[in-house]
Amino acid sequence: MRWGRDRVAARVARAATVLVLGTVAALALAWAAPRTSEAVGTWVKSPPKVTTRTVTVEPRLQVGLAGPAEASPAARLRSAREAGTVTLDVGDDFTMLGLTCDVPATDAEVEVRLRTSLDGESWSAWYAAPLEVAADGDGEARAFTDALWTGEGRLVEVCAAGVGDDAPLALTGVELMTLDTEGDSGVVAKAAATLRQVVATISGVGLAAPAAAAVETPDWVTRAGWGADESLRRDDPVYATVKMAFVHHTAGGNTYTAAQAPGIVRGIYTYHVLGLGWNDIGYNFLVDRYGTVYVGRYGGPARGVVGAHAYGFNTGSTGVSVMGTFTDEVPPAPATDALGHLLAWKLEVHGLDPLATAKM
Question: What is the pTM (predicted TM-score) of this model?
Answer without folding.
Answer: 0.79
